[in-house]
Each structure stands twice: as structure tokens, then as C-alpha cells.
Write a structure and sequence with these properties.
The structure holds two protein chains of two kinds.
Chain A lengths: L6 H27 L2 E2 L10 E2 L2 H8 L1 H33 L5 H13 L2 H12 L8 H8 L12 H29 L3 H9 L4 H29 L3 H7 L3 H4 L4 H10 L6 H29 L4
Antiparallel strand pairs in A: 1-2
Helix pairs in contact in A: 1-13, 2-13, 3-7, 3-9, 3-12, 4-7, 5-10, 7-9, 9-13, 12-13
Chain B lengths: L2 E11 L8 E12 L4 E5 L6 H9 L6 E6 L2 E2 L5 H4 L1 E4 L11 H10 L9 H14 L15 H13 L5 E5 L7 H18 L2 E6 L2 H7 L2 E6 L2 E6 L1 H6 L4 H6 L6 E8 L2 E4 L2 E5 L9 H4 L4 E7 L4 E3 L5 E10 L3 E7 L9 E6 L10 E6 L4 E5 L5 E2 L4
Parallel strand pairs in B: 3-8, 3-9, 6-7, 7-8
Antiparallel strand pairs in B: 1-2, 1-4, 4-5, 9-10, 11-12, 11-14, 12-13, 14-20, 15-19, 16-17, 16-19, 17-18, 20-21
Helix pairs in contact in B: 3-4, 3-5, 4-5
Classes of the chains: A mainly alpha, B alpha+beta.
Chain lengths: 297, 378
């Protein structure tokens, strides 16, 4: 056996080249832009190098609003959607029949177009001079006064956005968790039953630890996905997210590049790097916790 | 704890093409397992032995009939209240828990007054671990143990709650040959040490015969025979039992009875003495009656004047004894006859024909149609 043969690297070269050009280079480039003051795409010029862009972005009320929205969205949707997916998967799994049918139904949102779903959500929740919308009609039955979820108070708008995000991400999580549940050895449950284990204890001491690697996978990808939220907000509140006060960090980056206030690649880069740092930190924390807590088969 | 099957039947609904028809996995089981014994449920795969075990532990409910532990009817009692310990075929250890946590698990399920203190639990777990000799492995996880050690953990976990009945599903099938021998003796030792009524399922007749007090031979959901291993071996109730027990397997010939003589081919291998004439009609008849003759491999004696002759094919030396392999046209069970004889008595290998006389008590007769045993005093 030849050890340290350079041949191995040759095989990796095509993929490495591809990744280098389209992934590593842009990443480094964005990093560089973020330190270049007033970089201009057209003239390829900048005025100075330093932390100016970061200072500007962190003082920009739109960015602060976007950061607040994103953190709130992440804080609400990741735990709720993961917990809800866990609940639904276990329920699905204990169905004696129609399991496939319900699995298919629960999976439908995943294959439906985001913007189309957003439109439907808007119609459900919107309050117009002509109609209070279906959701307000339902709430009215319980004696609530109608609220405009699309163009009303912040909490209502946040609620719709969270509701929508959870609804969109749920199918994938259910899919992953039901297959994780199916992978748990049936005999473990039988053994536990013979030993007189209560249902709750079976769930917390056997099921959950056995599927914990998948749960952690979902939490990590959930965090990353939620931090990168943008299209969901657009689908419900339209492109002018700053006006609606519902912008996200990715939305802010987009606006800085192409939006009404566009033409600021330096600010966009700085915001993107800030997002990158946040996601990296959270992911590292997740991995560290996961390594400690999750059982590895 | 005495265990009683009282006319227990278990039917499963058919699936797919067989929908509408029922599969009878266990058919009218009635037998009693005495207290404190080791019992082997033995049969080929699909004979219902695992179903019988699942009925005992309560994971399955019988379609008809009752199951009793001692005087208590446990048919409608859920598994956790039956006081059974079960060792699964693949052990079903909780992979994310250590050996100690695995053994503690059943104790931690106890509630109220039954629940021991933490110290008591640990003491009990250690006691169970010591019994199966894994007390030095308490901090390991199952994946860090060998198959045999995992098996011991599973037994300790089943025993820690002091079950009334211990059930083992194919306990040795996942072990290699050497470990299997060791472990079966280990199971016997543990059973004797605890005195708990133990029922185990196996398809390996050697395994069942070697350690059981009683074996229950099953086929197609029906009990074929129950008895002490040696008794069942020496005195099988039908051809299936005779063929299922014993390695190498019994040699089965087409034979016939004529004028009080047993013939295989044209050779009269045994004759009934006038005094020991059985009352069976088979032997009285002057006309030839077809019959199935089965001869245990150890029932052959090399004897140059013997009545039974075969074409010698080979002699396989196995150390203590030798296997004489030869051909006989009337043989139906296998391509060749296998006779196991003492190494000192082996025939000359250049002989083309080998002559045997037969040990009468190793020759078993069966009805050629039904396979039922024909009892015949020689």
C-alpha cells in the first residue's frame, strides 16, 4: 500500500476547484468587502479599510430591527416546530392504520410553492375594508376583536410569520423524525413493556435518546434555516419589508445590495459576515451540547 | 412457579393474498411446566415456539384458552404485571445506557411501596450482575461488550426483578459455536442457582437436549411430544420427533413386516421372538405390510455375519468414534446411511460391502402413512 500518494489529491481536484471558485472565493471576497469602506462594484474602488461598515450596520435602525425580528423568529420557530414535529411524529407512529395517508398529507406543505402558500396565508389573515378575513372570522366566534395580522400590530405580524415558518418547516422535520422513529428497534419497546415501563418513561428514557442524533440534526439545521429566513417574510408582507417592520437579516443584506436603498455592497457584506458569525456561534454551541447529550450509535 | 397452558390457541389473520384465511400459530396447547425446571421449547422455524413464548410473557393474547402461573390465571394480565423476565434473541439492551443502567432499568419502573431505595436498587443490580459474572463491566455500554457478555447483561436485567418465570428467546443463536457451549452451561448454572422456572425457545435440538429438564417438541403449532430429553430421544412418538432429534440424524428406510420379521430391502434385519410378539396387527399378518423403519446412527454394529448390508462409501474418522457412510437403496431420509461406531470396530476400508447387525432398541418403527410410532417389543 502506498500511503501519502499524491494521486488521491488528483481525484479531489475537480470538486476542490469547484468549491474553491464558487464557495471559498466568494466567502473570502465578502469578508474582504466587509472591511472596505464604500466599495464600488463598477469602479472597483474603495475609500479606506477598517471597521467602518460594521459600525454603520450596527447603528442602522433597519438592521437592528431585522436582527430583532430574526432572533425572535429563530427563538420561536425552532423550539416550537421541533417540539411540534416530535409530537406529530410520535402520534403518527402510534397510528395503527392510515399512517402513510397522514404522512403524505403532512408532507404536502413541503412540496408546495412558498410564495403561493404565503398568498394563501395573507388572504387568511388579512383584514381589508371589505372583509375581516377568515382568521378574524374564527377569532370573532370566540369574542376577539378583529386584528389586521398583515398590516397591524407587531405581535400579530410576528405571530403570522412564525406560524407560517413553522408550517413550512414542519413536513421535513416530521419526515426525518418518523424515519428516525422507524429505526428504533421494536424489541427495545417490547423489553421495556415487559419490565413495566410507563409510556412517558419509554418516551423520555428510550425513544428520545435513541432518536436524539436526529433531533439535534434538526435543531442545528433549524437554527441555520431560521437565521437565513427571508422568502417567508416576502411571501406574506411583500418586498418592502422595512416599511412593514418585518425585515430579516438576509432581507437587509438583499436591500443593501439591490433594494431601494441598494448599491451598498460593503454594508451588505458586513451584515452578511455578522450573520455568518451568529450562525457559526450558535452551531458550535449546538454541536458542543449535542456531543455531550446526544447518544451516538 | 408452575406454568400451565390450558387449551391455548393463537390465530393470526392472514395478510396479502392469504387475507381472510387465518394462520394458526399455536394450536390447542395443553401442558404443564413444573416449578423450578428448565424447559426447552423445540421445533423448526415457524412452528409457533416464539409465539408460545410471547403468549407467556403477555405481548400476545391467546385467541382461545387460558394461561396459568401457579394457580393464578394470567391470561388477561398485562406483561408488566405477570412478573416475567424476558431475554430477547438480539438481547434488546438499551444501547445508550451503561450495563448498570440497563440492569437498574426494570427496578426504576417500580412504583410506590414496591420501589426500593437507590441503595437497594444498586445492591440488587450488583447481585444480579455478580450472578452472571459481569460485575466488572458495569460502566460499559452494550456496544463495548462481546455477544456473550451482552447476553449475560440481558439475563441479569431479566433476573433483577426476581421474576416468577424467566423466558429466553433463542438465547444462543447469536453466539459462535464455542461460546454457545459455554453459555448453555452458564444458563443451566444460573437457572439452578436461582431456581426460577425457565423456558427457552430454540430450533437447535442439541441445545435443548443438553440443558433442559424437559423438552417440548413442536411442529406446525402443535405439540408433538413432551418429556425428558433422553426419553424423547429414545422413545419418540412419531417420525418427525425421531428425525428432529439427534445428530447425525436418524436413518429412515422403507421396510416391511412379513411373518413376524422386519425386512429392509430383502434382508430380514430383526425378528420378533415368539414371546415378545407385540399385540399390534402389523406383525401378525402373513402378507407384507409396508412400514417406515428408522435406525439411530449408533444402532449399527459392524458384524461380518450381520443381516444388514450396505455399499461402503467412506469412513470418516472423528476421533473417539468413526462415521461409516454407506449407500442403501431403501434409504429415504438422506442420500447415504450414516452409522456411528466405536473407532476400534471400524470395517476394513477396502471392503465394498459392510455388514451390520442392529441394536433392537435403536430401531424404531413408524406407520408408513401417518408417521405415527408403532410400539413393538422385540
Amino acid at each position: 500500500m502506498e500511503h501519502r500518494s499524491p494521486k488521491g489529491f488528483l481525484y479531489l481536484l475537480p470538486a476542490a476547484l469547484f468549491l474553491g471558485v464558487f464557495l471559498i472565493y466568494p466567502l473570502v471576497d465578502v469578508f474582504v468587502y466587509s472591511f472596505e469602506e464604500s466599495y464600488n462594484f463598477a469602479s472597483q474602488t474603495w475609500r479606506g479599510i477598517g471597521l467602518y461598515n460594521y459600525r454603520h450596520v450596527l447603528r442602522d435602525p433597519y438592521f437592528i430591527q431585522a436582527l430583532k425580528n430574526t432572533l425572535l423568529l429563530v427563538g420561536i420557530t425552532v423550539p416550537v416546530s421541533t417540539g411540534f414535529a416530535l409530537l406529530l411524529s410520535v402520534a403518527l407512529f402510534s397510528l395503527p392504520r392510515f399512517r402513510e395517508l397522514f404522512q403524505t398529507i403532512f408532507f404536502l406543505p413541503y412540496v408546495t410553492n412558498t410564495l403561493a402558500v404565503g398568498l394563501v396565508f395573507m388572504i387568511l389573515f388579512q383584514k381589508t375594508p371589505y372583509s375581516d378575513g377568515l382568521m378574524n372570522l374564527l377569532l370573532g366566534l370566540f369574542g376577539f376583536t378583529p386584528v389586521d395580522f398583515i398590516d397591524g400590530p407587531y405581535a400579530a405580524k410576528m405571530f403570522v410569520l412564525s406560524f407560517y415558518t413553522i408550517w413550512i418547516v414542519l413536513p421535513f422535520k416530521i419526515l426525518i423524525l418518523t424515519s428516525a422513529l422507524a429505526g428504533v428497534d421494536e424489541q427495545l419497546y417490547k423489553a421495556a413493556r415487559i419490565d413495566g415501563t410507563s409510556r412517558a418513561r419509554i418516551f423520555f428514557r428510550i425513544t428520545l435518546p435513541m432518536i436524539s442524533p436526529m433531533v439535534f440534526y434538526l435543531v442545528i439545521t433549524g437554527f441555520i434555516g431560521a437565521f437565513k429566513a427571508y422568502s417567508d417574510a416576502v411571501a406574506i408582507f411583500g418586498v418592502n419589508l422595512n416599511a412593514a417592520g418585518m425585515n430579516t437579516i438576509v432581507g437587509y443584506v438583499y436591500d443593501m445590495l439591490y433594494g431601494d436603498s441598494g448599491g451598498f455592497p460593503s454594508y451588505a457584506s458586513a451584515a452578511a459576515i455578522l450573520l455568518f458569525i451568529i450562525i457559526l456561534t450558535i452551531t458550535v454551541i449546538n454541536l458542543l451540547v449535542g456531543r455531550k447529550r446526544a447518544w451516538r450509535g | 412457579m408452575k406454568v400451565v397452558f390450558d387449551h391455548v390457541t393463537k390465530k393470526f389473520p392472514g395478510r396479502g393474498k392469504a387475507k381472510g384465511t387465518e394462520v394458526i400459530a399455536v394450536d390447542d396447547f395443553s401442558f404443564e411446566i413444573p416449578d423450578g425446571k428448565l424447559i426447552g421449547l423445540l421445533g423448526p422455524s415457524g412452528c409457533g415456539k416464539s409465539t408460545a413464548l410471547n403468549l407467556l410473557c403477555g405481548l400476545l393474547a391467546p385467541t382461545e384458552g387460558r394461561i396459568l402461573f401457579g394457580e393464578e390465571d394470567v391470561t388477561d394480565i398485562p406483561p408488566e404485571k405477570r412478573g416475567v423476565g424476558m431475554v430477547f434473541q438480539n438481547y434488546a439492551l438499551y444501547p445508550h445506557l451503561t450495563v448498570e443502567q440497563n440492569i437498574l432499568f426494570p427496578l426504576q419502573n417500580l412504583k410506590g411501596a414496591e420501589r426500593p431505595t437507590k441503595e437497594e436498587m444498586l445492591a440488587k443490580a450488583r447481585e444480579a450482575a455478580a450472578l452472571v459474572q459481569i460485575d466488572s463491566l458495569m460502566d460499559r455500554r452494550p456496544s463495548e461488550l462481546s455477544g456473550g457478555q451482552q447476553q449475560r447483561v440481558a439475563i441479569a436485567r431479566a433476573l433483577v426483578k426476581l421474576p416468577r418465570v424467566l423466558l429466553l428467546d433463542e438465547p444462543l443463536s447469536n453466539l459462535d459455536a464455542r461460546l454457545r457451549l459455554q453459555t448453555r452451561e452458564e444458563i443451566r448454572r444460573i437457572q439452578l442457582a436461582t431456581g426460577v422456572t425457565t423456558i427457552f425457545v430454540t430450533h437447535d435440538q442439541e441445545e435443548a437436549m443438553s440443558i433442559s429438564d424437559l423438552i417440548v417438541v413442536m411442529k406446525d403449532g402443535k405439540v408433538q411430544q413432551i418429556g425428558k430429553p433422553q426419553e424423547v430421544y429414545d422413545d419418540p412418538s412419531n417420525l418427525f420427533v425421531a428425525q428432529f432429534l439427534g445428530t447425525p440424524p436418524i436413518n429412515v428406510f422403507q421396510g416391511r413386516i412379513e411373518n413376524g420379521r422386519l425386512l429392509i430391502g430383502d434382508e430380514a434385519v430383526l425378528t420378533w421372538s415368539q414371546a415378545a410378539q407385540p399385540d399390534d396387527q402389523h406383525t401378525d399378518a402373513a402378507a407384507a405390510i409396508p412400514i417406515t423403519v428408522a435406525v439411530r446412527p449408533e444402532g449399527f454394529i459392524v458384524d461380518s455375519d450381520g443381516p444388514f448390508s450396505c455399499a461402503l462409501r467412506s469412513v470418516e474418522v472423528m476421533g473417539r468414534d468413526v462415521s461409516v457412510v454407506c449407500a442403501h437403496p431403501a434409504l429415504t431420509s438422506a442420500p447415504l446411511v450414516r452409522a456411528v461406531i466405536d473407532a476400534d470396530e471400524q470395517p476394513a476400508r477396502d471392503d465394498e460391502t459392510v455388514h451390520f447387525s442392529l441394536k433392537p432398541h435403536k430401531v424404531l418403527l413408524f406407520d408408513a402413512q401417518t408417521g405415527d410410532r408403532l410400539r413393538t417389543g422385540w
